[in-house]
Amino acid sequence: MAKRNTRFDASFKREVARMVRDQRLSVSEVCRSMNLVEAAVRRWVAQYDGKPARDPGENESFTEEQQRIRQLEAENRQLREDNVLLKRASAILARELE
């Protein structure tokens, strides 16, 4: 099965979420009829449910917790890279001292 990488605008996502919530259609039915992936539709519905004042897909930003996690992951990556570099440098210095 080929991977689809289609982007949908906010109004489309909102309409799909409304079909599930307002028209009481199942996610499976909507996905079959519109040839969509269930995981994406479920995410759009969750966004629609959780943030009705904001349109799903519009100006999507991360929560403070998600931002902090990303920041910590980036810091962790950098520290691991620094650690590898220091290990290599210390191995080179140890060889030179012998």
UniProtKB/TrEMBL annotation:
Protein name: Transposase
Keyword Coiled coil belongs to the record: yes
Origin species: Caballeronia concitans
Key words of the record: Coiled coil
Coiled-coil portions: 62-89
InterPro entries in the record: Homeodomain-like_sf, Transposase_8
Pfam families named in the record: HTH_Tnp_1 (PF01527)
Alphabetical GO biological process terms: DNA transposition
Gene Ontology terms for molecular function: DNA binding; transposase activity
Taxonomic superkingdom: Bacteria
